[in-house]
Amino acid sequence: MDPLKVSARMVINEQARAIATLEATPLAVHDKVNILATLAGVKPACSATLSTSSWHDHEAPLTVPSDDIEQVRHALSLASLASTVWHYRQSRGSKKQYVVEFFVAKQQQVVDQLVSAVHAGDDRKLGHLFGFPKTAVEAYITGTVIPIRERARSTADVSEEHMLFLQHMISQANAEDEVRYLPNYAAHVYALSPTIYNEYVAKRRS
Q1: Which residues have CB under 8 Å from 29's CB, separation 6+?
Q2: Does the predicted model carry a pTM greater than 0.85?
């Protein structure tokens, strides 16, 4: 038996296990899409969150179940993705919420860059690490983006379905160029998990 074929089969099986585990996690489907895109190499890095319901000051604090956290960790480990995990409480008025945030990339060095950019509030660096087009990032920083309600639902190159995978603002000057990557992006997500792809499209259309 060819050892190279055996090795390739093992890699495929391991990836299938990782994706099946990811599909079963309690992460929001848009976070699952971002993790798949990072795994496919069409997105340098991403973040994903688990969170509790909100509670008031006079109510008992909530926490994210440890089993849920471990399930996400396990999926990332099976996919050979590096990650750093933050645990924190966030407040909105009198309401509080417990959040577990995963910063994810193929290499720990990239994860560290993402964490550093979040700490610094560096929108330009965050846009780069999330794989957003440079002109779209600059337009976001300068306030020259197209309002969401005014964006085209499709273009000559991008179908309405593929436009659902747009996760960043687009500029007034280069809108069509900035969405041209979406068919390839969506195709990579579908190739790894038709289940997550279809769930995401259905949720965006609902």
Answers
A1: 196, 199, 200, 203
A2: yes
